[in-house]
């Protein structure tokens, strides 16, 4: 029989993962519903074409980084805080380079690709494309952080910030969607991410597993954003 304390810990972790996964689904699945309600069903179709292309680009990095999760878990257990940090920095640097390339390429070329692929009537405005690019960049550049989150299992301490972010995303999507249309709904996701778990998760990870502050991480992120711009 399983020890009662172990059983309770397993159940608690499962609940945390469930909340985290539900929150993540709310982040990604509510945009289309809100766009359909506020802007129209046709706008969802236009956005889906761009989202599909964006997701295909992100899939490349996700395949590479997800394969490293088990190795990162082993490093977390066996290596020192300094070694963990050095490996994280190496992954983050590679991610910055890759994400900068695909984000710039997506922003510059996606409308031309849509034009050749399905026609001019399916092209979205440059402002909307910029909003999609921002979301693509964030989803890409945060992969190393998410891999370490999965490897360390910090769901217990981050589940509610993710839930708050998902709720904030819905509220902002409705408000900005009414004001700015489809562009506002897309931008709301980026704002919700940046103002919630992007600010919280790195601090927690650096404090508990790297035994240092996350200031260097945020400075590096800002420098990379300015370089891409």
| Cα-based radius of gyration, to the nearest Å | 19 Å
Uncertain segments are none
- The shape is globular
> In this structure, how is the largest beta sheet organized?
none
Give the total of beta strands: 0
Order of helices and strands: HHHHHHHHHH
Which percent range fits the helix content?
A: over 70%
How far apart lie the N and C ends? 58 Å
> How many separate helices?
10
Proportion of strand residues? under 5%
Structural class: mainly alpha
Mean pLDDT over the full residue set: 87
Please explain how this structure is put together.
The protein has 229 residues and is mostly helical. It is built from ten helices and no strands. The chain has helices at 4-38, 41-66, 69-78, 81-117, 126-141, 143-152, 155-180, 182-195, 197-210, 215-228. Helix 2 (41-66) runs parallel beside helix 5. The longest helix has 37 residues, at 81-117. The protein is globular and about 60 Å long. The mean pLDDT is 87.
Compact description:
By secondary structure, the chain is an all-alpha fold. It has helices at 4-38, 41-66, 69-78, 81-117, 126-141, 143-152, 155-180, 182-195, 197-210, 215-228.
Please give a handful of descriptors for the protein shown:
single chain, 229 residues, mainly alpha, 10 helices, globular
